[in-house]
Amino acid sequence: MRRAGQRPARGLGRMTAKHAHLKLGLVVRGHGRHYVVEDDTGRRRVCHPRGKKSDCVVGDQVRWAEVSSDEGVIEAVEPRRNLLFRQDEWKTKSFAANLDQLLVLVAVEPVFSESQLARALIAAESAGISASIALNKTDLPGVDAQRARLQPYREMGLHVMELALKADPAGSRALLAPWLEGKRTFVLGPSGTGKSTLINLLIPDALAQVGDISQALNSGRHTTTTTQWYWMDAQRRSALIDSPGFQEFGLQQIEPAQLPLLMPDLRKHAGDCRFYNCSHQHEPGCGVRTAVDAGLISAHRYRIYGEILSELSTRRW
Fold first, then answer.
1. CA-CA 20 to 30 A from 45: which of 82, 154, 156, 280?
2. Is the pLDDT of residue 193 over 70?
3. Tens of pLDDT along 6-24?
4. Cα 24 to chain center, whole Å?
């Protein structure tokens, strides 16, 4: 069974000996068939992929050749460590590649979707990417209720941080900085949770890093929503990767039988089932359902598992 994070790039050539002499670069932004590639000196330029198709994503290491002083052509994509993406019945949306960790940012207001949170964590688990949760706006009324909703995630061993990015920027920075040090961190979360506040707090020169080249990618278009790579330090060791908000998070890349193994709280009890191929829905002697009844697995988490399992079991293709 191939892990979701091991999907190869499509369209572009895979790295071979004939590409070894080409320059190595990092994809820091993309729009359609136009990408911003950063070389080893930190200089950025617009590059276009060779051929009609491409599957470059932010975070890819690519081999490229210079065609002018400010443009290049991407010839090949280096092998990826991982790839974070979502997939519904119709299309696949890749977020970023070669990540060290995922930060799922939620907030007291607007109230977050636990289903979306669970789906993001499942995608990260499938790709082999470590994930943590940050609850923002903890200075607002209602924090206790949202804190309680996250308790099952703490109990299953996930790292859950509490932030007040606007009310306590210094304290939030002090909490986040050690955790982000030396890592490539992808920030995922719905609109309104404070992602822009987080980026501006931790990266004072964020606008400068986007720069004229990246802005040019969106000229004449109606949207500026795209994944963006930001360096947190001059040495380019720590990075934040920001993503646009989204409403849906499909997991069609997951096999139904694999799903409970990607949810730590269910996985812990799946080995107690009478049948090796238990769906944890109706079979007798199910260790997962016994754990739900005993309060060892959150009823909300089990309901979300059932919803996702139903989606994966009724694929249209």
1. 82
2. yes
3. 454 444 555 565 666 788 9
4. 24
Rounded to whole angstroms, the Cα distance separating 15 from 182 reads: 26
Pair type for strands 13-14 and 34-38: unpaired
Question: Using CB atoms within 10 A of its CB, is residue 178 exposed (0-12), middle (13-18) or buried (19+)?
Answer: exposed
Alpha-carbon dihedral sign for residues 176, 179, 184, 188:
negative
Tokens representing 37 are: 């590639």
Specify the pTM.
0.89
Dihedral of the alpha carbons of 225, 129, 77, 53, in degrees to the nearest 10: -50
Task: State the DSSP H helix or E strand holding residue 58, giving kind and residue range, or none if neither.
Answer: none
pLDDT in tens, 233-280: 999 999 999 987 766 789 999 999 999 999 999 999 999 999 999 999
CA distance 110 to 90: 29
